[in-house]
Amino acid sequence: MADWQIPIIILAGASLVAGFILLKKHKDRDQKVEVLYGYPANSTTWLTIYHYRKSGRWVFEWDDLFAEKRSKSWGDISECMMFEERKSGATREEFNEAWARLSERGYQ
Questions:
Q1: pLDDT grade for 79, boundaries at 50, 70 and 90
Q2: What's the rounded Cα separation, in Å, for the pair 40 and 84?
Q3: CB 98 within 8 A of CB 49
Q4: What confidence score (pLDDT) does residue 12 get?
Q5: Please, what's the b/e burial string for 55-80 (b: 16 or more CB within 10 A of its CB; e: otherwise)?
Q6: Is residue 65 assigned to a domain?
Q7: I need a labelling partner for 87 at 20 to 30 A (CA). Which of 16, 17, 20, 72 fits?
């Protein structure tokens, strides 16, 4: 794929320097897609599951530092309270794979 050229102008004292910044198209990067989020079964810690499309890598991101712990009002801790992130553009195949990976780890 071709690079993008963005013109730039820099003022340095009395000098004017013009040039271009070359940027790779964003599609060359490994797109990170949020697939599932919420509280898995038997856990009080918030979990977000991401899929990196280019590399095929899956990431389980546990938010145990800043997120609030699972409230008892959400029901029994053995219940899975994970949700599909519909706005991220994740595909049905990505949802199915994320659910399978969650189940393999005993969190569903």
A1: very high
A2: 12
A3: yes
A4: 56
A5: eeeeeeeeeeeeeeebeeeeeeeeeb
A6: yes
A7: 72
Tens-digit pLDDT profile for residues 86-97: 999 999 999 999
Domain assignment of residue 79, yes or no? yes
pLDDT tens digits, 10-44: 555 555 555 555 555 555 688 999 999 999 999 99
Per the structure, the count of domains in the chain is 1
Q: Is 90 exposed, middle or buried (0-12, 13-18, 19+ CB in 10 A)?
A: buried
CA 37 to chain centre: 10
Q: How many beta carbons lie within 10 A of that of residue 10, not counting itself?
A: 9
Most distant CA atoms of the chain, gap in Å: 69
For 62-83, give the DSSP string.
EE-SSSPPPPGGG--TTS-EEE
Q: With contact defined as beta carbons under 8 Å apart, do 43 and 70 qualify? A: yes
Q: Is 91 among the domain residues?
A: yes
Mean pLDDT computed over every residue of the chain: 83
